Amino acid sequence: MSPLNKRKLSKVRYKLDKLDNKLLQIIKKRTSLVNEVLKLKQYKKEIVDQKRINLILRKIKKKSIQNNIDPKITSRIWRNMIWSYIDYERRNFKKK
Predict the structure, then answer these.
(1) Most CB within 10 Å of its CB: which of 4, 10, 22, 82?
(2) What is the CATH number of the domain that holds 58?
């Protein structure tokens, strides 16, 4: 790799790192909202709402296409995020 391209790569990576830090703050906020949702659920069986999951994934696919983002990428990200939070809810559920 040429020295010029190394500098360019370094700049792009710096931007990615800054964006990752912003994503971490968004994840922190999302986790706080999930905690609020968890407090409202009375039974562990309420944690997985397949209809809602399907609705979210359809919306994400549609919005991805509208925004010219590869829907396979966003679908994978959202599926992983949803199931990660389901796992989180199951681990933190304190009721029946």
Answers:
(1) 82
(2) 1.20.59.10
